[in-house]
UniProtKB/TrEMBL annotation:
Mg(2+) 2 binds at E357, S360. InterPro entries: Aa-tRNA-synt_II (IPR004364), aa-tRNA-synth_II (IPR006195), aa-tRNA-synth_II/BPL/LPL (IPR045864), Asp-tRNA_synthase_2 (IPR004523), Asp/Asn-tRNA-synth_IIb (IPR002312), NA-bd_OB-fold (IPR012340), NA-bd_OB_tRNA (IPR004365). Mg(2+) 3 binds at E357. This is Aspartate--tRNA(Asp/Asn) ligase. Residues 134-434 form the Aminoacyl-transfer RNA synthetases class-II family profile domain.
Length: 434
């Protein structure tokens, strides 16, 4: 709107037009106050019934909560007003009336369950706590992009409708593509690898991935956002350095730029950007430490994937972010390189938060023959992946990379109970709209 002043910018002495939502109306008899809220805060609008035009008073006090209104008047200092200033209106318009029956209370006085919140995200995200989560999520992505820029990585976008899957452990969503079988992509994996062999060399992508996960858990989504990184001429150790740098950059940016949001979420005091090096445990050390905690009913043996309970026990034991390296080859995907002197051991890694896995990555198999052999070992038909393997015959450099789930990063950073709180419009087994 042309001459709109944000409430936070309204200064005593201004003649201003403010616009926003009716947060609250307090009618004290001869005087009444409308608290108007916009993205920057709130401002008090004063109605002195005997001194003002009746229509104006009627418009002001008749507006339903959460209606959108615009008020023009003088801004004056008023120490009794919540923000120390108030507007004395000359005119007021209701731009959009709100139904008096609201499905949830944006003032937060009445709690709503997560499902009601997700059904009414517009109203839910008027609450400072919800808004804070998404302001912080945006800051995380901004910081991550800036960090990638500092390490010379180019942002790319890869297709989301694809012919083949890559991540074995999870199902694909089929789509019909002009009568042909196609799928929603589970990961930019193969495309980002194809680009490290291009003149770009070092790339990243922030984009959606789709997984027909069977389980309905507080940490899985069927559509998630991934931060993918891939670089030529680095190994898995250097890839872990970049991964750690990305996480530290995201935390530092939030610490530096989002104090207000952290306070709204009630975590400003304990929020700390990690600065120490993240421990790098081998898979073997990880299972030994998990077994030593005695938290699992059955001892883990070499070749087992780390169960959720085991990850939690180890997370409590380590007490911060850490990497798990040198995984058994058989539980890592075909594109991960194995150690030449021990083919049962891979150069894959995971970055863990004490609560859950945040990242998977590794050094990739860039040698054509070994790559094709890996497909066969995992029961995949290399012919189907010819568009990918073919490029490994034309000069594919050694390379490594990884991927974060953005929602898990935000969820663990802000200690949210459910991953759905970190995505505006989550997709899960039950939820396809809004
Ligand atoms: P009337 O005398 O017509 O009945 P009133 O008693 O409702 O009017 P006031 O006595 O002016 O109105 O104020 C009522 C309450 O509102 C008081 O507690 C006063 O401190 C508070 N109040 C008055 N003006 C403001 C203002 N501009 N901002 C915040 N609070 C105010
Ligand atoms: P992976 O399958 O481990 O690896 O996924 C990487 C990270 O993405 C997040 N994630 C999810 N988040 C929410 N809901 C889901 N259903 C979901 N699935 C995955 C997790 C996980 O750690 N191509 C490899 C990465 C690579 O090697 O570069 C891959 O996709 O945080």
């Amino acid at each position: 709107m042309q001459d709109r002043t944000f409430t936070a910018d309204a200064e005593p002495g201004d003649h201003a037009t403010v616009a926003g939502w009716v947060h609250e109306i307090r009618d004290l008899g001869g005087i009444a106050f409308l608290i108007l809220r916009d993205k920057t805060g709130k401002i008090q609008v004063k109605f002195e019934k005997d001194e003002m035009d009746d229509d104006l008073v009627e418009t002001g006090l008749g507006a339903h909560r959460e209606s959108v209104v615009q008020v023009t008047g003088d801004v004056e200092e008023e120490e009794r007003a919540p923000t120390g200033v108030e507007v004395t209106p000359e005119s007021m318009q209701v731009l959009a009336d709100a139904d008096p029956e609201l499905p949830l209370d944006p003032s937060g006085k009445v709690d709503a369950d997560l499902s009601t919140r997700l059904d009414n995200r517009t109203l839910d995200a008027r609450k400072p706590e919800t808004k804070a989560v998404f302001e912080i999520r945006a800051e995380v992505l901004r910081a991550v992009r800036e960090y990638f820029r500092s390490v010379g990585s180019t942002e790319i976008n890869t297709p989301k409708i694809v012919a083949t899957g890559t991540e074995g452990g999870t199902e694909l969503f089929p789509v019909t593509y002009f009568g042909r079988e196609a799928f929603m992509n589970q990961s930019p994996q193969l495309f980002k690898q194809l680009m490290v062999g291009s003149g770009l060399e070092r790339v990243f992508e922030v984009g959606p991935i789709f997984r027909a996960e069977e389980h309905n858990t507080p940490r899985h989504l069927n559509e998630a956002t991934m931060i993918d990184f891939e670089s030529a001429f680095i190994d898995h150790e250097e890839a872990m350095d970049v991964c750690e740098g990305t996480l530290k950059a995201a935390y530092s940016a939030v610490e530096e730029h989002c104090q207000e949001e952290l306070e709204i979420l009630g975590i400003a005091d304990e929020f700390e950007a990690p600065t120490d090096d993240f421990p790098r445990l081998t898979y073997e050390e990880a299972i030994e430490r998990i077994n030593a905690t005695g938290e699992l009913d059955e001892q883990l043996v070499w070749g087992d994937d780390l169960p959720t309970e085991g990850e939690k026990a180890l997370g409590d034991d380590v007490g911060g972010h850490y990497f798990v390296t040198d995984w058994p080859s058989e539980i890592k995907p075909f594109y991960i390189q194995d150690y030449d002197d021990d083919p049962d051991l891979s150069k894959g890694f995971d970055l863990m938060h004490p609560r859950m896995e945040l990242v998977s990555g590794g050094q990739r198999e860039h040698r054509y023959d070994a790559l094709v052999e890996g497909f066969e070992q995992q029961g995949l038909d290399p012919d189907q992946f010819e568009y990918y393997t073919k490029m490994f015959r034309y000069g594919m450099p050694p390379h490594a990379g990884w991927a974060y789930g953005v929602e898990r990063l935000v969820m663990t950073m802000l200690d949210l109970d459910n991953i759905r709180e970190a995505v505006l419009f989550p997709r899960d087994r039950q939820r396809l709209s809004p």
